[in-house]
Amino acid sequence: MESREKELSALPQSNDPPPGRLSELLGRLIYPFLHGESPKPQQATGFYTDTTVCIGCKACEVACKQWNQLPSDGFNWSGNSYDNTNDLSATTWRHVKFIEQFSHESSSASPNMGANESPLNRWLMMSDNCKHCVASPCHQACPTGAIVQNEFENIYIQADICNGCSCCIAACPFGVITRSEEGGHSHKCTLCYDRQRDGLEPACSKVCPTQSIHFGPVEELREQARKRVEQLHERGVPQAYLYGDVPSETYSEMHSFYLLVDRPSVYGLPDAPFNPWLHMMGDYTRSIAGGLAAIAALLVVVFLLKP
Ligand code: SF4
Ligand code: SF4
Ligand code: SF4
Question: Which residue puts its alpha carbon closest to atom 6 of ligand 1?
Fold first, then answer.
């Protein structure tokens, strides 16, 4: 894989048109009307993140910034934890959460924890990113077609088509997307689409020293993750479970899913994510019915008042 990286980095990096104002102008005029060939569908890829082996080194966060040329977030302590990144943002597409738990607040309410188990003081580490939901509300909400599901079944934002309306931000139940103050476009993890197209694995999973982040075909990841849960149960960690590997009544499965050992809300995730579009059919029906009723009332008034 390393020699492949060297080989790729030696290739010419730009497809820019030949220099010259006229050719640039022509390129700009013609480009919007050109339809390239659609990429062939590939095996669905994603992440399985095993939070039990994460050491909070933040190498994944740094690798993401380095590969995607995202600026740093400064070095201001949040005051909430030993973490100066705080959250996902338009310039932070992967964020390692540090969750410090004391015994009085540890989750005896964990769905899988036995009644006689005594919780301990502990740190939970979780490297968070976009979940690449199969039926993704952000994709469904985008009015310009800027958000697409690419050939690897990952959710990708084409920033150059984004008009900054923020519909995707409101639709995502995980608070993943942020609009950049600089360009006004929405941004998030691309699942390193550019690297995948060149046969490379994403930067974050490649650098993770503990293999907390696993990348690969989703089916294989699910199998691997289920075996790990069984292993943890046998080793005395009955709380271990997978979050997002299968669809629920209110949400699709996610191509980036997690192995957790406490309630999702402890990690800042919704306990039961809900796709806002499930409400929308009723809302649309009510709006159309309301509009038709208003038109009918108007017509009645017009005809009644007719001399
Ligand atoms: S986690 Fe949010 S941003 Fe990512 S695909 Fe799902 S809805 Fe979209
Ligand atoms: S897949 Fe790429 S873009 Fe997404 S978090 Fe990892 S390094 Fe960042
Ligand atoms: S690189 Fe791996 S171990 Fe380090 S913070 Fe990220 S997920 Fe955790």
Answer: 133
Q: What is the largest CA-CA distance in the chain?
A: 88
Asked whether 96 lines ligand 3 (CB < 6 A), one says yes
Backbone angles phi, psi at 283, to 5 degrees: -65, -45
Cα–ligand 2 centroid distance for 82 (angstroms): 22
d(CA 45, CA 153): 7
* 87 CA from centroid of ligand 2 (Å): 15
153 class by beta-carbon count within 10 Å (0-12 exposed, 13-18 middle, 19+ buried) = middle
- CB 208 less than 6 A from any atom of ligand 3: yes
Reported pTM: 0.81
Q: Which amino acid is at 40?
A: K
Which CA distances in Å does 260 have to 29, 116, 257, 275?
51, 20, 10, 22
- Cβ of 172 below 6 Å from ligand 1: yes
Cα distance between residue 185 and residue 171, in whole Å: 16
* Tokens read off for 125: 């580490």
Residues with Cβ within 8 Å of 238's Cβ and at least 6 positions away in sequence, in order, are 112, 113, 114, 117
If one counts every other C-beta atom within 10 angstroms of the C-beta of residue 42, the result is: 14
CA gap 188, 133 in Å, rounded? 13
* Token pair for 101: 């738990």
Q: Which two tokens stand for residue 264?
A: 């999702």
Each residue's pLDDT tens digit in the chain (307 positions)? 567 777 777 776 555 556 677 877 887 788 777 777 888 999 999 999 999 999 999 999 999 999 999 998 877 787 877 888 889 999 999 999 999 888 755 554 444 444 445 557 899 999 999 999 999 999 999 999 999 999 999 999 999 999 999 999 999 999 999 999 989 999 999 999 999 999 999 999 999 999 999 999 999 999 999 999 999 999 999 999 999 999 999 999 999 999 999 999 999 999 999 998 887 777 788 889 999 999 999 999 888 877 6
